[in-house]
Amino acid sequence: MATSVGKKTTKQKMARFATSLMEQLFGEEFVVRERTTIVHDGDNQYTAENYATPPIVDAKLVRSLYHNTDNRYALAAQLVKPIIDANVSFIGVPIVRSKDNAVLEAVKTFNNQLPFNIVHRIVEREGTAYVWPQIDLDGTIRFEVIRPETIKTTFIDPMTKKIVGYIIKDEFSFKDTADQVHNITIDVTIDEKRITKQVTCDVATINKPAVTHRNVFGFLPIVTFLNDAEPWEQHGHSEIENIEPQLKLYHDITVEANRAQKRDGHPKMVIHTNDVKEWVENNFGAGYYEQLRKGLVKLTLDQRDLYLCSTGGGIESDREDVKYAESGKATGDYNSVIEKTFTNIIEGGQTPEIMMGASMGASLSSVKEQRPAYIKKIAKKQQQYATSWRKLIVMALMIKGFVEFKEYNTDDFTLTWPTPDFATEKEKADTLNTLSTSLIKMRQANIIGDKEIYATIKKFDILEVEQDDTKHKKDIDDTAKFIIEHEKDKQAAQDNTMNQRVADGDYDNKKDGDTPQEGTNAEEEQL
């Protein structure tokens, strides 16, 4: 039942009571301060053809946190970059494998241009990344990474809920040779059928009206990468989003601790005297007290190392004194609170603390315990991005085939991701030694066969083995033949050497190592 205007519901009353209680407990600033904006609604509008996408990440804010250029987080944002960069490093770059040589050769022409690490950094930091494969006049395929904030509108099919088009608005400024600043806006509307581009600039030669071209490829050539997006979301989530409140708390606590240290941490001078005028004139000169009282001079105690105090006899012996009062706990419980906040950032970022640097004092046992969870997290991210990378490579092959009047088998390739691990080279060598010994013993005991051994080695990804089973077997056969031929050549060389020695008279049915016959020259025998 609808609530009449002017009447407050029980829920509203409870909310107001909770707010009042929080103000009393923690102060007004705690309640009034809203969480620093990580997401915003964008410019999308609810219409029949184009309805608003979910809130998107504030790209400007997360970039400033990543580069630590936002003063509101200056003393905490140094923890952001290790989290993002560690994820990117362990996700790595996939290897494209295929049994079709034509596909492999085609991929090689643009494989080095695929912006793997760049896209992974953007999508981890900003939640969403867009890549537009394009081809130059010379046939070179390039991949344009679109800034997420330039995607102003997303067109979605209301029946299938698939993205069918975008409106891109890129605004920036530039300088000409005369050092004059000009503003330019590029508007692009793109879908599966057509591409419309308009350039607006205050330079007449650059300014161009809207021009529409047919999309000859027949598909939307923009691939979206999403991080931790729900099935119904069109934008992903930043890794920073989960730890932003803790970053702000970390910064605020550090600021307050530093203020307390500056305010209360230094010793304070305490002067005890029965006659202020006498003490001032004794230490700063006659007449200084009157100038001080009239405001003509200022009394500064920081620049003097020695102060004179007058004492008399008897009970007057301690009538003047100078002491220092020190604060033994200027920062309060800063260490324990900041350590807890740091732990929350580590847990929220799902990153082992060793990524923050060796100075954090992470014990070896705790790091080893964090390895399996972190490896599973990275493996999940690799699987999450694999679909988009495969889609991008398929698009690039289709574009390349369109230009070259060829048709590539876009289904005949796979992506092999590096296995995330923390193992050192010595640990890998020990693992390989133990693994090979165990596999050999199990094969000799007829527990496993060659196929199982090959699959196990390929899964561990310690050795660089051929991923295709047929090519792997051929490589083994070729190696075995090479070893046999090498042994034959070695034996033949030994036989030829022996025959030559017999022919030269250097070998008289003596075995190597026999002592020379009596009467022979020992040096000649050795030669």
Count of separate DSSP helical elements = 15
What sort of overall outline do the alpha carbons produce when their principal axes are compared?
extended
Helix content: 40-55%
Strand content: 15-25%
The count of β-strands is 14
Spatially, the strands of the biggest sheet line up as 6-7-8-9-10
- Extract low-pLDDT stretches: 1-8, 21-33, 39-53, 518-527
How does the major sheet shape up?
5 strands, antiparallel
Give the terminus-to-terminus CA distance: 115 Å
For the CA atoms, what is the radius of gyration? Answer: 38 Å
What's the rounded overall pLDDT mean?
Answer: 78
User: How do the SSEs run, as a string of H and E?
Assistant: HHEEHHEHHEEEEEEEEHEHHEHHEHHHH
What structural category characterises the helix and strand content?
alpha+beta
Give a quick rundown of the structure:
The protein has 527 residues and is α+β, with helices and mostly antiparallel strands. It has 15 helices and 14 strands.
